[in-house]
Amino acid sequence: MEVFRSFQEITGCHNSVVALGTFDGVHLGHQKVMRTAIEKARECGGTSVVVTFDAHPFSVLCPEKEPARLSTAEQKIQYIAAVGIDVLVLLPMSRHLLNESPDAFCQQLLTYLHPSAIVVGANFTYGAKAAGNTASLTAFMESYQVPVMVLTLLERPGRATPISSTVIRRLIAMGHMETAEALLGRPYALWGPVVQGDQRGRCIGFPTANMLIPAQMAMPPDGVYVTEVLWQGQRLPAMTNIGANPTFERQYRRIETHIINWKGDIYGEEITLLFRKRIRPEVRFDSVEELIAQMKKDEHIALQFLI
Fold first, then answer.
1. Measured at the alpha carbon of residue 118, what is the angle toward residues 117 and 123, in degrees to the nearest 5?
2. Measuring CA to CA, which residue among 278, 282, 280, 284 is closest to residue 305?
3. Complete DSSP assignment for 70-108
4. pTM to 2 decimals?
5. pLDDT digits (tens, 9 = 90+) for 109-165
6. Which domains are seen in the chain, by residue range?
7. Beta-carbon neighbour count of residue 252 at 10 Å?
């Protein structure tokens, strides 16, 4: 997949089918829009293109109100590539972009992508103050004989409500990782480096890979989780504690992951942590022995889930 950070970088793109959206998290509803663009591109022998943004508008307009992110820009690129898109235009969020009129945005689509069709979800908005919508997009493109496909929002299984990034954030904040995974189409993932810990886990037989709480990302509540670690092409079974480890004194909130039945040193390495299921809330134990006994039970639950 080719990745561009501006329209001006693009050359030689003709007969494209463009999927438009914010696509925060690239959940199943977003994937439906992208796969429709891929299908239409194949029918006309064209190129499938996604045009999206690297952050939420509030990251510029009102950072304190920005909703928690479901993916970093790097993860977003990976998720879109996995859908099978040919070209990604990932526009940096900026005041210039936010002040652009709906017509100016549409004109850039025509000038640089030469679309034969455009695909959007029913709730798509664009342009300054989100003044553009599917109706204005359809009307603008109609005069250039570019059809706009407006897709109904994909509904949650068993519910008459659409899949949305807002719903997924809420599920993650409540620790409902299995439901969040079902709506994302993959486990919710955090990415980052393994940092130096106090090595207490190693002393009690449960060495951990520690990560700092990432800024801006959606975070599950404190507790113990069934997880998997992606590292150097391997997918390793694990269990993860989020919290301040209240059994011990003078701790700080962090992410501690024990990779089950594995020995190795990944300090300083970048890992991806996949959240599969919440086992229990974080608990303060009266003794280290009680903590170890519970961790053995947690490990058994994690292995049973992952088998």
1. 155
2. 278
3. SS-HHHHHHHHHHHT-SEEEEEPP-HHHHT--HHHHHHH
4. 0.91
5. 999 999 999 999 999 999 988 899 999 999 999 999 999 999 999 999 878 799 999
6. 2-151 (3.40.50.620), 187-306 (2.40.30.30)
7. 10
